[in-house]
Design brief:
There is one protein chain. The strands form two sheets. The protein has a four-stranded antiparallel β-sheet, with no helix packed on it. The chain has a three-stranded antiparallel β-sheet with strand order 3-4-5, with no helix packed on it. The protein is mainly beta and 146 residues long. 3% of the residues lie in helices and 40% in strands. β6 and β7 form a beta hairpin. The N terminus is likely disordered.
Length: 146
C-alpha cells in the first residue's frame, strides 16, 4: 500500500515533531491550525474577517497599530447544578494578529462589525494605493510623412 493514498490528516498528530511530508526547514515551529481568518480587498477597502462563533462581541477587542490589526478576547462560561453536584467552567481565548496589506488611509477610522459569529474589520485604502488608469499615447509612425 502506498502512503500517497492515505490522507495526510490521518497520518499527522498534533505535536512539535515535524512531518516528513513538510518541506519546511523550520523544525521548531508549532503545527499550523486553521484560524478562521481571511483577508480580502476591493478597489476601495481592505477587509479582515475572523470567525468567532459563540463569542459575545462585548468580549472582543480590536486594535490597529503599525500596519497590523489585532483581534483578541476571551469567553468564559460557568454552569452549576447543586442537585447533581455538577459544576463546569470553560473558557475560550483567542488572538489573531495579521498585517493589513497595502496602504490604508489613517485619516479614516476603520469600521468593525460583528454579525452571525463573524467579526469584520474594514479599512479604507489611501488614494495613493488605489489603482490608477494609465492613458495610452499613440506616437506618429515613421515614414508616413516622407
Amino acid at each position: 500500500m502506498s502512503l500517497d493514498l492515505v490522507p495526510r490528516r490521518l497520518l499527522s498528530f498534533p505535536s512539535m515533531v515535524p512531518s516528513i511530508w513538510d518541506n519546511d526547514d523550520d523544525w521548531f515551529t508549532a503545527p499550523s491550525t486553521q484560524t478562521g481568518l481571511s483577508i480580502s480587498e476591493d478597489e476601495q477597502k481592505v477587509y479582515v474577517e475572523a470567525a468567532l462563533p459563540g463569542i459575545n462581541p462585548d468580549n472582543i477587542e480590536v486594535t490597529y497599530q503599525d500596519g497590523y490589526v489585532w483581534i483578541k478576547g476571551e469567553q468564559q462560561e460557568e454552569e452549576s447544578d447543586k442537585k447533581k453536584k455538577y459544576y463546569r467552567k470553560a473558557s475560550n481565548a483567542f488572538s489573531y494578529r495579521v498585517a493589513v496589506p497595502g496602504e490604508v488611509d489613517l485619516n479614516k477610522e476603520p469600521e468593525a462589525t460583528y454579525e452571525h459569529g463573524v467579526m469584520k474589520v474594514s479599512f479604507m485604502k489611501s488614494e495613493a494605493s488605489k489603482p490608477k488608469r494609465i492613458a495610452i499615447k499613440q506616437k506618429k509612425q515613421l515614414g508616413s510623412g516622407k
